[in-house]
TrEMBL record:
Keywords, in A-Z order: ATP-binding, Nucleotide-binding, Transport
InterPro entries in alphabetical order: AAA+_ATPase, ABC_transporter-like_ATP-bd, ABC_transporter-like_CS, DrrA1/2-like_C, P-loop_NTPase
Name recorded for this polypeptide: ABC transporter ATP-binding protein
GO MF terms held by the record: ATP binding; ATP hydrolysis activity
Originating organism: Prauserella flavalba
UniProt family annotation: Belongs to the ABC transporter superfamily.
Domain ABC transporter, residue spans: 6-233
SUPFAM superfamilies hit by this protein: P-loop containing nucleoside triphosphate hydrolases (SSF52540)
Keyword Metal-binding found: no
Length: 303
């Protein structure tokens, strides 16, 4: 693997009789935003805790930069836990300076970095406030600042977008893109799949402790069947039903919706529609990550 890659290699973990992780394998490359998605209880947080060394794996290994993750490596990881972990009575600025120093940053540098992230995340007015007096959204921004204040080489973020308003989501997205652009591998879990699809270079889907799909959004959805809505006012009923590789899903006054089997050329459908007269609409609908996720987590879920 290349330099500065975070590798999760066949990591397994049991809690009593429950298999939480079963040989989970994926990597997060330098400068990559990697989205880690799965239903509640699928194993996302457990995986992240093992990367952090909060939990020990029963088998497998986590490596960064080609070497097993040690305590020293962990000081270079920026972590945002799902259960937020800030000191409620400590003031925002003091807290960030303290956390940076815990990671070995000298006091002056810690101060400079804390002020930089406070400004960047729109917390300047709140810098002298106790964390417990902030709104949940602002507490979340402080938590992100805490993950960034020591200039980490890797970012591991558990549900960083939960509870954020749209403006804060935009700020958070921009910061993650910026960090990735400096060559930092960024992995985050999220239930907001539209956001994951928009932001991430690659996505891993975990179900019941196993990775069931991994790749870019385009790769993950490329094998799925394509749907097309056709509006051809002069077309007789059933005009598309005899076309090879085409299944008619709906036919009404709004048009005809067809599903193409993989490998079927949409131009054949267009040609057949044009043969009936003018075509007013011909819209391809690519499956979204949300649809793909639903099928990935429900297939075999009962087994």
């Amino acid at each position: 693997m290349g330099e500065r890659t975070l590798e999760i290699d066949r990591v397994s973990k049991r809690f009593g009789d429950v298999v939480a992780l079963d040989a989970v394998t994926f990597d997060v490359r330098p400068g990559e935003l990697f989205g880690f998605v799965g239903s509640n209880g699928a194993g996302k947080t457990t995986t992240m805790r093992i990367v952090l060394g909060v939990l020990a794996a029963d088998a497998g290994e986590v490596r960064f930069d080609g070497a097993p993750v040690t305590h020293e490596t962990r000081t270079r990881i920026g972590y945002l836990p799902e259960e937020r972990g800030l000191y409620p009575k400590m003031k925002v600025l003091d807290q960030l300076v303290y956390l940076a120093q815990l990671h070995g940053v000298p006091l002056n540098d810690a101060h400079r970095s804390a002020e930089l992230w406070i400004e960047r995340l729109g917390l300047t007015e709140r810098r002298r406030d106790e964390v417990q007096k902030l709104s949940l959204g602002n507490q979340q921004r402080v938590q992100l600042a805490a993950a960034l204040v020591h200039g980490p080489d890797v970012l591991v973020l558990d549900e960083p977008f939960s509870g954020l308003d749209p403006i804060a989501v935009d700020v958070m997205s921009e910061v993650l893109r910026e960090k990735a652009a400096t060559g930092v591998p960024v992995v985050f879990s999220s239930h907001q799949l539209d956001l994951v699809e928009r932001l991430c270079d690659r996505i891993g889907i975990i179900r019941s402790g196993r990775i069931v799909a991994c790749g870019s959004a385009a790769e993950l959805t490329s094998g799925a069947s394509v749907r097309i809505t056709v509006r051809a006012p002069g077309a007789p009923a059933g005009w598309a039903s005899a076309l090879p590789g085409v299944r008619v899903l709906a036919e009404n006054g709004d048009g005809t919706v067809v599903e193409l089997a993989p490998g079927t050329d949409d131009q054949d459908v267009l040609a057949a529609a044009l043969a009936t007269g003018p075509v007013r609409e011909f819209t391809r609908h690519h499956p979204s990550l949300t649809e793909l996720f639903r099928s990935a987590v429900t297939e075999g879920a009962g087994t």
